[in-house]
User: Fold these one by one.
Assistant:
Number 1:
Amino acid sequence: MSKHLGFLLVFLLLTIYGISQKVSQYPADELTRRGEVYFRFENTSQIDREKISKTISVDHATNREWVYAYANNKELDEFLKLNISYEILPHPGSLINPLMKDHLNPSGNLEWDFYPTYEAYMELMFQFEQLYPGICKTVSIGNTVQSRQLLCAKISANVNTTEAEPRFLYTSSMHGDETTGYVLMLRLIDYLLKNYGNDQLVTDLLNNTEIWINPLANPDGTYAGGNGSVCCATRYNANNIDLNRNYPDPQDGQHPDGNVWQPETEAFMALADSLSFVMSANFHGGAEVFNYPWDTWPQLHADDNWWQYVGREWADTVHFYSPAGYFDDLNDGITNGYAWYTLAGGRQDFMNYFHQCREVTVEISTVKLLPESELPAFWNYNFHSFLNYIDQSRYGLKGIVTDSASGNPLQADIEILNHDNNNSWITAENSGHYFRVLYEGSYDIKFSAPGHKSKTIEMVNIINRQSSHLNVQLAEGSDGITNADIQTLFTLSPNPAKDFIHLNYLGNQSIKCEIELSDVKGKIINSWLQIVEPDFSPIKINTRNLKSGYYFFRLTSGGLYYTNKIIVM
Ligand SMILES: [Zn+2]
């Protein structure tokens, strides 16, 4: 009792003085033991949100009250320099000691009211493949810092044959202590496999899509307390790095967090390089909301209306199957990422910008380590939305692009005119097949491929929850721009630059190009793909983080190039 009173007194004192005084205790023990701390500070108008989100790992912010965050040793030291009062909180991964099971039998009826030990998880992933060899294949996409495998279940009818189907990805728990999605994704694999041939929607999904499910993207974090329990899970990986700040960023370059790419990041980047995913969702915890692109900057995604439509559908469906109060954060369960809180180096923006995949971040439970008895209820709230969201990858515009003479498939670029921006265009696969999700409306669509004359198909109608088929043949030739032309089509200003430089385009047709910025020694600092369009506002290139000096700018498009020297002051 007296011990409790003591705690209460300390708590009251911290509450009373915490706001006006800096909390003095430095969590040295916690940082040594766990490698990371969880804390909060007041969300005032004085704080510089951009700066803070680049210093520590902001977990979430509540409306005008608190910002909750994680930091490793180095990040906390940087944060302390900002002189903001903060309060260390109990770590979300250690609040309960949940029921664990060390052996599972997927041929029986699992209740999913437990967490699997690491060994049980590994065994289960390979049991799925053994029990359902025609529709499930277990694929290892790489290893973690501590040499655990990163596993995906690939699920589709004729799973060993590549078919002309949209490819879809679910991935969970890249923040190792956000474990609800981990169990729900295992259960989704089990559900899809057991119901193929019995349930119409599941059968349709497996017959018409290729589904990849990675239940655990940061096993070192989830099992940081040992393979026997998810208690004492950490957010970060075994190098104490936040994997969801470790990806190349559309605005902040290749290493926005200042760290090298972690083995987990490299594994997912290699997966995205080798296979194109039409849609994806990335499960987290700590809030309950469908968070759609972009996180890094305020401009809206070209498909913002489609994002709001599929997000609203996700949240409304969840609301129908759950009690009031669940999944209603921000705009009743959906939010634009930047409007909530900005972050750089996230996987969502990486997949959208660099891989033309529509990936969303789904925050699935406010409580990060949910008591095991609540897991079945969260499944019931969510599984209709899990299935429905996969189903959405089948709709929009699809078809095949071929050479008009030979009939060979073309890896064409498909651009929605007066609509696409920030790499929202897509590229057809090697097989010439393409899949473009799109909100209903009438669109002009341009198809272009190297060595071919481009073609625009006007007024193509898209209806929600239907697919429009459009097969296109392109003739050999070119659109007629020469290298001399391209030199006169681009300018850079202001040059010398300070915080940014604008790329201006004077051409009268849209072109896709690759842009590279390198230093005087020729080392590439940043490179990205870009579509430039006529009458498009200048493309703003951030030079704020570059040291003063000379840089080389190079833009290439279909064998043509434009180069210029930039001076940064
Ligand atoms: Zn998270």
Number 2:
Amino acid sequence: MKMQFIKSATKPSEYPEGFKYEVALVGRSNSGKSSLINALAQQRVAKVSSMPGKTTLLNFFDAGDYYRLVDMPGYGFAQRSHGDQKGWRNVVETYLATRELLAGLVLVMDIRRDWSEDERDLLSWIAPRGLPVALVLNKGDKLSKSQVTKRRTLLKEESGLDMIWMTSALKRSGVEELEESIFDLWIKPRIR
Ligand SMILES: Nc1nc2c(ncn2[C@@H]2O[C@H](COP(=O)(O)OP(=O)(O)OP(=O)(O)O)[C@@H](O)[C@H]2O)c(=O)[nH]1
Ligand SMILES: [Mg+2]
């Protein structure tokens, strides 16, 4: 798919202009948000690192002609200094709370990690906006098929979310399906 980096931003005056819906990738640091963007783009358009905390700004990408993907800095990165934590919250929360073009959230988790207070807090914090949320269980390549199925069932129950996709950014599996679903469910109904 055609995916192009547009710009980085921290505050609303820096967000891209023009009317295009946006889908935000949120989730714990190191879960593979930026890697999923690269897997979709089939090239390295987003910065990836084995050290959590790589993405520090909001990064906007054109996902084809109709919408944008927003790669967000991850949470749960304990090494961040206290001042950085506050800055991070402000950047992410301002975007999530105020961006009118936001059409949905993709919550990315490492499939091996358990649902935690951080995910729960994020969902309850964003709930008033009434946006759709999809859960992406990434790094499926790290587990056997049967383990993947087990984790999916468990995390579906724990999260209470209906939309769940399984991916491996590394193997590029499930990423086309993810993109198609986002487009069909969240974007297509809004364009005419
Ligand atoms: N095995 C495996 N590794 C992955 C996968 N996706 C990402 N990784 C690795 O996980 C690490 C973190 O990936 P990133 O894409 O930088 O994670 P992120 O969620 O963007 O992290 P932050 O920017 O800190 O929020 C990197 O070492 C990736 O190579 C996957 O599907 N399988
Ligand atoms: Mg990142």
